[in-house]
Amino acid sequence: MSDTADGMDPAVKQTSAELATGVDTDTILKTEGITKRFGGLTAIDDVDFDVEAGELRCLIGPNGAGKSTLLNLITGALSPSEGEVYFRGHDITEMDPHERIRRGLSIKFQVPSVYEDLTVRENVRLPIQRLASGAERDERMADALAAAGLSAKADVAASALSHGEQQQLEIGMAASLDPDLLLLDEPVAGLSVDERAEIAERITQLNEERSIAFVVIEHDTDFVAEIADHVTVLHQGETFREGSIEEIETDPEVQRIYLGGETDA
């Protein structure tokens, strides 16, 4: 009998996606040589980027570093000029964004896109009603409201929420899809100190209690220090540094690149 003890035929060759992000690895997301050109501008240049299951990763860098471009390549909003994107054992490079969401990847953009004419509860119901009905739907809605920290405001119109509360609502809505990985694009931009602390609590609770992995784009290094397990610094479309927030904050080269600024790609 040629099969191994775990039932796998040793002659069966694993795909690159399975080797990079499959069941035999802790990595759930990986880009290999990902590159994006806009005419003569190379916004992302041969970037290898990976995220482990349950990790809380922050992606930082000066304006023009290519952070948003990399996020859009991961979500499928942009197609790469070169390279691959692997997620949970699959090559998703050519997949549509909705298919990536179905496979467990979710995103919340910088500007909230809640329906202001609906209540908080009605907003939460929108993504959930595609997944469940009846008692299961109601339970998921209650969980999403709690994840957003807005259970007490369930019947308030979304238009009456503060900007920070709308950010919380969108995070709760994204988390209601039960993603393995949630991407956040500058979730605390323009928020007060108290609102930033509330968002940090939402993210860390979802990470710890639901084992959702996060990639968070953020400029606020104080906020990054509150939440990050690991930090990646992009500069001019390339991976510049990776490490703990302590290592990144004390790196003289990171300090140097933050003295300048360009238009974000």
From TrEMBL:
Which Gene3D superfamilies does the entry link to?
A: P-loop containing nucleotide triphosphate hydrolases (3.40.50.300)
Classification via InterPro entries: AAA+_ATPase, ABC_AA/LPS_Transport, ABC_transporter-like_ATP-bd, P-loop_NTPase
The UniProt keyword set, sorted, is:
ATP-binding, Nucleotide-binding, Transport
Sequence ranges assigned to domain ABC transporter in this UniProt record: 29-261
Q: What is this protein called?
A: Amino acid/amide ABC transporter ATP-binding protein 1, HAAT family
Q: Cellular component terms, GO, for this chain's entry? A: plasma membrane
GO MF, one annotated term: ATP binding
Source organism per entry reads Halorientalis regularis
The yes or no answer to whether the keyword Ligase is present is no
